[in-house]
Automatic annotation (TrEMBL):
Annotated Gene Ontology cellular component terms: plasma membrane
The name this protein goes by in its record: Rap guanine nucleotide exchange factor 5-like protein
Calcium listed as a keyword: no
Domain spans labelled Ras-GEF: 118-353
Taxonomy of the source species: Eukaryota, Metazoa, Chordata, Craniata, Vertebrata
Keywords, sorted A to Z: Guanine-nucleotide releasing factor
InterPro entries, alphabetized: Ras-like_GEF, Ras_G-nucl-exch_fac_CS, Ras_GEF_dom_sf, RASGEF_cat_dom, RASGEF_cat_dom_sf
Species this chain originates from: Labeo rohita (Indian major carp)
Entry-linked Pfam families: RasGEF (PF00617)
GO molecular function ontology, one term from the record: guanyl-nucleotide exchange factor activity
Protein origin, superkingdom: Eukaryota
GO biological process: Ras protein signal transduction
Amino acid sequence: MKEEARDTLLRKRKVLHLLSQWSSLCTDLPRDDEHAKLFLKNKALFHQISLKENWHPVRGAQREKKEEKVLLQSDQCVFSSSISAAERLHVCRRDLTEIMSPFTDNGQQRSVKMLSMNTWDVAVSLTNCDWSLFSNVHEQELVYFTLSRDTSAGHTVALEQLLQRCNETQQWVMTEVLLCPTLCKRVQLFKKYIKIAAHCKAQRNLNSFFAIIMGLNSPAVSRLTQTWEKVPGKFRKLFSELESLTDPSLNHKAYRDAFRKMKSPKIPFLPLLLKDITFIHEGNKTFLDNLVNFDKLHMIADTVRIIRQCRTDHMGNMLSQKDSVEVRTYINYLHVIDNQQTLFELSHRLEPRT
């Protein structure tokens, strides 16, 4: 019976796989048909189920309990039908279990670990991670992301991963600071992050640079006046200089001037590129007197072409550098709290409102 059920599941997945491929090729589906509407509504789910890497037979038990840890053997796999789109199922190697544990278990140890790391090494690992994502972004993804109405087509996966990484880096800064209960250690963390931001700028990684500065400037962190007052003057001055590059006045003139002077390869702040494309698209008509507005298309192409210019220089050099294994493991598995209400509660717990 188990073999029959497994074969039936495999056949169904093959059928869904063929249907997903067919629907991608044949876009003129009868959209008034109820069955077609139902299929298109669940197309993304069907595609995920039909992926060939998911065709392996299920040997593990279904788990629905929260925060349950199970050690799997090499021939086992696990699945859950209770996970919603906003939830995650974490799977990690046995030697990485410690860094994947909940915040409440090792918050103090993590802040100590962060303080023991070399700031340049942390910046290198951040840059390497961002570079691996940035190098996979295709120029057309920027156009799809800003102009396409179909956000579920899967044309912007690499770009979305890089944007998500930027958000995670910002949330990581906030999380580490707000989970540190000791004032003196929070001051040290502030100094660390200011130096890491400076190193990211020196390594021409404006993606992580912006993320760190925005994390320190977030309302939940910037309100920690007692902590900021303890930060030495030279670090506050350095932070002010770095912060000026994120000034949005005059259409981000400070950032654009600094970025233009940086030699390639370099990693731009992608949200600003997307903003530029959006403004070009919304501020100019695609057709003028029933003719294609090629000036608009050229402006979009020039903006998109920036990422090609950023990736390599005339010598073919890349931005990635050799990094520490320990730091790389830490950076690749960042602990973040993405709930703003929780972050504010932590902030008020550290420095109550007077």
